[in-house]
Design brief:
Helix 5 packs antiparallel against helix 6, helix 5 crosses helix 10 and helix 8 runs antiparallel to helix 9. The protein has ten helices and no strands. About 7% of the residues have low confidence. The radius of gyration is 17 Å and the shape is globular. The chain has 210 residues and is mainly alpha-helical. Helices cover 70% and strands 0% of the residues. The protein has a domain of 100 residues: Orthogonal Bundle (Arc Repressor Mutant, subunit A).
């Protein structure tokens, strides 16, 4: 319960304090029992790391089902989801798990840079609400998002497959990550890993272009 409250406060802050922590807790409260039941300590991931991602996921799913969210919340929602997808992919990757990312300064720096790249990519993504896309509140924000999207599109051109295809279908075309992974013959687990690797390749490519 303490972790649930902590996750709700952190996510509320990331969403710009536009959603109350109590509301976020309500979205994830029922998920607690399932999270405990499905936890497998043999995979080497700490329970708090495992539970944190799934609690956040339950909160985000609950928010997505709401139809009257402000456009600013929708934009941040997609960005936070992208960041969580990256973190989950790192946890799935046996070579470098998310809970081990802080064992060295260089690895931590790479992990944090990956989170930042995922967040930025999510800011310009086409979510399920793309049919009724809502513009940002001010022209300056809209211009910045368009410039960022143009850079990401350019970076994906020669990023290499299957990572480029997964990122393009998920973020630029608004396709669910599982469907994007299936399109290139991958399972959900492998799609999550390659999403994380694709974000890291995108980070390096964006740096080269800059």
């Amino acid at each position: 319960m303490a972790l649930l409250a902590q996750v709700a406060r952190q996510l509320g802050k990331q969403l710009g304090h536009r959603v109350e922590a109590r509301e976020l807790e309500g979205h994830a409260h029922e998920a607690l029992t399932a999270i405990v039941d499905r936890f497998d300590p043999s995979r080497g991931v700490a329970f708090r790391s495992y539970a944190r991602l799934r609690l956040r996921g339950a909160m985000l799913d609950g928010l997505r089902k709401e139809t009257d969210l402000p456009r600013g919340v929708l934009t941040r929602l997609r960005a936070v989801e992208a960041m969580d997808l990256y973190a989950e992919g790192k946890a799935e990757d046996v070579a470098v798990r998310a809970d081990q990312a802080a064992t060295a300064d260089s690895r931590l720096g790479s992990y944090l840079a990956g989170l930042a790249t995922a967040y930025a990519t999510g800011l310009v993504s086409r979510g399920e609400d793309a049919v009724e896309e809502r513009e940002p509140e001010d022209p300056e924000t809209l211009t910045a998002q368009r410039q960022l999207r143009t850079r990401i599109e350019a970076a994906l051109v020669d990023l290499g497959d299957p990572e480029a295809t997964i990122l393009r279908r998920h973020y630029l075309e608004g396709e669910d990550l599982n469907d994007a992974a299936a399109a290139v013959g991958l399972s959900k687990s492998w799609g999550s890993r390659l999403h994380a690797r694709g974000i890291e390749k995108l980070r390096k490519r964006l740096a080269d272009l800059r």
